[in-house]
Amino acid sequence: MTVQPIQPRHARDLEALQKVVFPTLAAADRIMAEQYLRHLDIFPEGQFVLMADDGVIGSTTTMRTTFDFDKPRHRFRDSFGGGWLTRHEPAGDWLYGLDMSIHPAWRGRGGPGCYTVPVTR
Length: 121
Prior knowledge:
The chain is α+β, with helices and mostly antiparallel strands and 121 residues long. The chain has one domain (2-116): 3-Layer(aba) Sandwich (Aminopeptidase). Helix content is 21%, strand content 26%. The chain has a five-stranded mixed beta sheet. Strand 2 (47-52) and strand 3 form a beta hairpin.
């Protein structure tokens, strides 16, 4: 397994992964391919994919934000602009992990074979 930055070519596979990982979630609440592409426009440094021989098996979506710990309640969908990452604050104090998805067949397989790839531009 390798962790690498999401690339535009991963968007459709990531949308399909959302359906497998969150089968009971309404389609409007899952992240779609177009939204993943928008995330790359807004904050590419915060989007990662987990790859294996089977292709895309996991992902994470993050954004930067300023969080008010005195008012911690918010709706998830509102927190990142309905899935479009429009609430990302480039100078935000916190990295907010919005979504982590691992294909059910690959859960619990971490360990020595898992490593990260350095992010370069």
